[in-house]
């Protein structure tokens, strides 16, 4: 049967949206908490470490059968028992991203946009399009990500420029080293998990027609994501002084609220909401697809679609587990953004080395 | 339990490893020149043809006895109960004897003057000598020489030709009939297109006659590469269908897929290309149109030259173009004739019109109901002032006015053409004004509805207009419940469902996404620049200009 493929633009767009959607969550606040006025440096340090994920994924895929995904390659290299165990870890990671981000976005919508709508209704309204998009598959995901990426990046750019023009404090970044050099460095290494969503390339790369295009897609994704994470953090710190910056719930939303371009263009938060919502829905759809794809490959099911419906119910159920928004945010920060690098860097690296060892041993025995 | 089968695929894992015979068709890129014309494992298909009438020993054949042949035809056509059939006996003189014959045709289907002058008259006046045996060849080369003739021995073909306005000449002693092409009947002359008017460009549209339509295309594509494959669809209507393409440009897999789908049609009656369109489209349940229908021969010819396939149906003035992607629905034939700056401007206007037609009322309701902060203070006060005396909520106002507008539009189409436009204008003006004065709707809502209506008329395609008209109400409903969030979430579902579908193997939204290089979408470049055929339809030759002129890179896309 003809295998559908995705192009460089689509693959890069999926990666970018999966990574940068966190800018619409309290991401900038968490960096401000960790690094103070030097929170922007953490984003840069994390960006420096993120190619490790890409090299590790590429190494794993090259040490397995051609066309294998990260999950299939992991099982091939480690064998069925250890491989399945590691793949279950990937599954848990994608699943956790999906249900935690779903809960966080629902809480934000409930508190800031639709205060009179019950949280359950918002959850259901969000989960239906997410499940639908995930059901349509990675090819459709790629197409809609490419179609909307311009709108999302453009909106962010407008908000950043508008925020800076409306209100910017020139001395906002002092002291330069924020909470201290060593703390910034340690936080930067720990927060390299900001890019742990790059694991999605483990599913995307095998669907690209030419393997020499892998690098183009990944480097574009890394470049645009790094710039976006860095610029939103630094602008946020310019616009809001440190004491305020560590208290705001939705930093980018608050920046958009400040914008005033004369009498007619002001308070762009509702326009910004459109980009915000599209980005969130697509990120969740990518997360749900990766969760279903991981499980379907562990169970060796021929199709991903049949797992979408049950996993949607599970995601909905797990999204109700945190007692409130702050619990969801703390789970995200304490678990995903602290130990995320274990899944995105350590596990693929380990698998890569295991693959190299396996090749060498085979050569010796041959 | 029938419902269970429909939802089962979503809930229960399908563990079958077998290939799905209904898997969606996808056009593959041509890797090299050798690929051109190959089907890459596809089953070769052919256009459906008339099934022969079968007897005990294969196809039913004529005998050499005139009476038996005529009796069979009379029985088959239920003559004389069926009064349309005409039998005209004649004799041909041969030295010392006469040979009897019969001309059979359908009344009012043939050109009587043509038949009398070029067929009957030569037959009656013929005088054959003894050494000149009466045969089909003699008739063709010595007697009836001014008419296009074919011959057959099978009743199935004779019946089909008689039904298609030919006259059958049956002669005693010959087991072969001669079929004279004397097509008559009333035909409409060439006129301007009814639905695709242009300011600049040809002012001629297709007619209901397939041969006329084919000649209009042949006149524009004077190349031996132009292939017209004909077939018949509909067990009762026996409607002639032709596919038209350029052999050296169009992808062979695409042509084969078109043939396969037309051959797979199982229906008794095809009245127009609109019916065939519904029978061969990829997703019958999708609200988005699957193929472009046009009544302009110049538009059709230009698409064929780009590597598309045109489907013509007899008795239909609309040709179908396959595959069709979204940008084509916002393009007109005129775009090619205007300078690139002007046509790009028009395309931008149409794209804005399309989006306004879909979203404007819904966005207004969402903002007025849920997101007041988006509106500048002075405007919000103005809106509040006009709405003060209106008892209906904004959403109800919008539904009411949009429904009224749909009523007026439908009434305008059905009312006799002399008063139709008047009713439309009078209805809209009077109803709108009266509704505002009666405090049923606010003036701003009237402006929004009118702007939406105008925007919807900028969409050149009739089917796409329907899509926006219907979806506008769905967006309105979601905007009333969830504001902008409802609109965005519904948009994600609808746009994803649209772009996930391939139409004749090409993604619906190509070249917007996936995005191959060198394709005109919203903006059009100057004609002097290197031009390439749309990569999405995988043409065999991608360059539009011959070598030596500005050449475009071959196969410029990437997925």
Q: Would you give an account of this structure?
A:
The complex is a heterodimer of chains A (366) and B (559). Chain A is mainly alpha-helical and 366 residues long. Chain A has one domain (8-353): Amino acid/polyamine transporter I. Chain A contains 16 helices and two strands. Chain A has helices spanning 8-20, 27-35, 39-49, 51-62, 70-78, 80-113, 119-136, 138-166, 181-190, 201-204, 214-239, 242-245, 251-258, 269-298, 305-319, 325-365, and strands at 260-261, 265-266. In chain A, strands 1-2 form a two-stranded antiparallel ribbon. The two termini of chain B are 42 Å apart. Chain B is built from 17 helices and 15 strands. Chain B has 559 residues and is an alpha+beta fold. At the A-B interface, helix 1, helix 7, helix 8, helix 14 and helix 15 of A face helix 1 and helix 17 of B.
Keywords:
heterodimer, A: 366 residues, mainly alpha, Amino acid/polyamine transporter I, two-stranded antiparallel ribbon, 16 helices, 2 strands, B: 559 residues, alpha+beta, 3 domains, six-stranded mixed beta sheet, five-stranded antiparallel beta sheet, 17 helices, 42% helix, elongated
Question: Topology of this structure?
Answer:
The complex is a heterodimer of chains A (366) and B (559).
Chain A: H1 8-20, H2 27-35, H3 39-49, H4 51-62, H5 70-78, H6 80-113, H7 119-136, H8 138-166, H9 181-190, H10 201-204, H11 214-239, H12 242-245, H13 251-258, E1 260-261, E2 265-266, H14 269-298, H15 305-319, H16 325-365
Helix pairs in contact in A: 1-8, 1-11, 1-14, 2-3, 2-11, 3-9, 3-11, 4-16, 5-6, 5-16, 6-7, 6-14, 6-15, 6-16, 7-14, 7-15, 8-11, 8-13, 8-14, 14-15
Chain B: H1 2-11, E1 54-55, E2 58-59, H2 66-76, E3 85-94, E4 97-106, H3 112-125, E5 127-128, H4 136-143, E6 149-152, H5 155-163, E7 166-171, E8 177-181, H6 210-220, E9 226-233, E10 239-246, H7 252-263, H8 273-280, E11 292-294, H9 297-305, E12 309-313, E13 319-322, H10 326-329, H11 334-337, H12 340-370, H13 377-387, H14 394-414, H15 420-437, H16 443-457, H17 462-499, E14 502-503, E15 506-507
Parallel strand pairs in B: 3-5
Antiparallel strand pairs in B: 1-2, 3-4, 4-7, 6-8, 7-8, 9-10, 10-12, 11-13, 12-13, 14-15
Helix pairs in contact in B: 6-9, 12-16, 12-17, 14-15, 14-16, 14-17
């Amino acid at each position: 049967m003809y295998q559908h493929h995705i192009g460089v633009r689509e693959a890069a767009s999926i990666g970018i949206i999966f990574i940068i959607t966190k800018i619409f969550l309290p991401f900038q606040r968490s960096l401000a908490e960790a690094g103070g006025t030097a929170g922007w440096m953490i984003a840069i340090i994390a960006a420096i470490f993120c190619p490790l994920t890409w090299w590790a994924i590429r190494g794993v895929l090259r040490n397995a059968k051609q066309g294998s995904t990260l999950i299939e390659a992991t099982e091939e290299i480690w064998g069925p028992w250890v491989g399945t165990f590691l793949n279950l870890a990937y599954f848990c990671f994608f699943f956790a991203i999906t249900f935690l981000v779903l809960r966080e976005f629902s809480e934000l919508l409930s508190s800031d946009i639709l205060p009179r709508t019950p949280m359950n209704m918002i959850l259901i309204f969000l989960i239906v399009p997410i499940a639908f998009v995930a059901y349509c598959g990675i090819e459709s995901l790629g197409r809609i990500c490419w179609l909307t990426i311009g709108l999302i990046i453009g909106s962010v750019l407008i908000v950043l420029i508008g925020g800076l023009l409306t209100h910017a404090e020139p001395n906002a970044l002092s002291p330069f080293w924020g909470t201290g050099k060593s703390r910034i460095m340690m936080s930067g290494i720990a927060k390299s998990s900001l890019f742990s969503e790059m694991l999605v390339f483990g599913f995307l790369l095998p669907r690209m027609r030419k393997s020499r295009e892998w690098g183009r897609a990944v480097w574009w994704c890394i470049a645009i994501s790094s710039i976006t994470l860095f610029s939103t953090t630094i602008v946020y710190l310019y616009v809001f002084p440190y004491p305020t910056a560590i208290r705001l719930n939705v930093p980018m939303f608050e920046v958009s609220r400040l914008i005033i371009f004369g009498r007619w263009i002001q308070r762009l938060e509702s326009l910004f909401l459109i980009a915000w919502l599209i980005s969130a829905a697509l990120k969740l759809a990518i997360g749900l697809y990766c969760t279903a794809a991981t499980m379907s490959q562990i169970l060796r099911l021929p199709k991903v679609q049949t797992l979408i419906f049950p996993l949607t119910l599970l995601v909905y159920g797990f999204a109700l587990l945190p007692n409130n928004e702050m619990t969801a945010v703390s789970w995200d920060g304490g678990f995903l953004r602290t130990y995320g690098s274990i899944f995105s860097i350590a596990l693929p690296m380990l698998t890569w080395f295991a693959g190299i060892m396996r090749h060498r041993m085979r050569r010796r025995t041959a | 339990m029938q419902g269970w089968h429909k939802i089962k695929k979503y809930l229960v894992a399908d563990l079958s490893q077998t290939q799905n015979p209904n898997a969606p068709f996808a056009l593959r890129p041509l890797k090299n020149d050798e690929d051109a014309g190959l089907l890459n494992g596809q089953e070769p298909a052919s256009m459906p043809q008339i099934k022969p009438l079968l007897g005990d020993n294969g196809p039913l054949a004529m005998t050499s006895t005139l009476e038996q042949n005529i009796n069979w035809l009379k029985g088959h056509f239920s003559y004389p109960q069926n009064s349309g059939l005409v039998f005209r006996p004649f004799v041909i003189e041969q030295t010392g004897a006469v040979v009897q014959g019969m001309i059979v045709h359908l009344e009012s289907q043939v050109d009587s003057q043509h038949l009398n002058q070029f067929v009957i008259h030569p037959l009656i006046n013929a005088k054959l000598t003894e050494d000149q045996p009466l045969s089909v060849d003699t008739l063709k080369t010595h007697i009836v020489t001014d008419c296009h003739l074919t011959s057959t021995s099978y009743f199935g073909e004779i019946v089909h030709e008689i039904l298609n306005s030919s006259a059958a000449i049956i002669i005693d002693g010959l087991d072969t009939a001669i079929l004279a092409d004397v097509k008559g009947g009333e035909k409409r002359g060439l006129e301007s297109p009814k639905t695709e008017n242009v300011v600049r460009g040809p002012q001629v549209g297709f007619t209901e006659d397939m041969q006329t339509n084919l000649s209009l295309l042949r006149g524009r594509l004077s190349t031996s590469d132009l292939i017209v494959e004909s077939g018949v669809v509909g067990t009762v209507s026996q409607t002639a269908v032709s596919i038209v393409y350029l052999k050296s440009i169009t992808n062979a897999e695409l042509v084969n897929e078109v043939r396969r789908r037309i051959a797979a049609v199982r229906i008794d009656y095809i009245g127009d290309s609109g019916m065939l369109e519904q029978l061969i489209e990829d997703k019958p349940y999708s609200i988005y149109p699957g193929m472009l229908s046009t009544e302009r021969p110049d538009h059709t010819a230009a698409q064929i030259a780009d590597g598309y396939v045109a489907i013509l149906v007899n008795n239909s003035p609309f040709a179908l173009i396959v595959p069709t992607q979204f940008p084509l629905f916002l393009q007109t034939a005129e775009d090619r004739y205007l300078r690139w700056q002007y046509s790009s401007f028009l395309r931008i206007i149409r794209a804005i019109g399309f989006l306004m037609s879909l979203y404007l009322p819904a966005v207004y309701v969402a903002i007025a109901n849920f997101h007041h902060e988006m509106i500048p203070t002075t405007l919000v006060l103005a809106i509040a002032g006009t709405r003060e005396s209106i008892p209906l909520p904004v959403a109800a106002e919008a539904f009411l006015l949009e429904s009224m507008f749909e009523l007026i539009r439908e009434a305008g189409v059905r009312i006799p053409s002399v008063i139709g436009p008047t009713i439309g204008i009078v209805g809209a003006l009077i109803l709108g004004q009266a509704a505002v004065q009666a405090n049923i709707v606010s003036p701003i809502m009237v402006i929004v509805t009118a702007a939406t209506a105008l925007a919807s008329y900028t969409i050149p395609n009739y089917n796409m207009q329907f899509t926006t008209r219907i979806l506008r109400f769905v967006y309105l409903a979601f905007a009333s419940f969830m504001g902008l969030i409802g609109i965005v979430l519904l948009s994600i579902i609808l746009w994803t469902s649209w772009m996930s579908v391939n139409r004749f193997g090409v993604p619906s939204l190509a070249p917007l996404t996936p995005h191959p290089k060198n394709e005109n979408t919203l903006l059009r470049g100057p004609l002097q620049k290197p031009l390439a055929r749309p990569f999405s339809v995988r043409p065999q030759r991608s360059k539009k200009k011959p070598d030596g002129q500005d050449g475009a890179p071959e196969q410029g896309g990437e997925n």
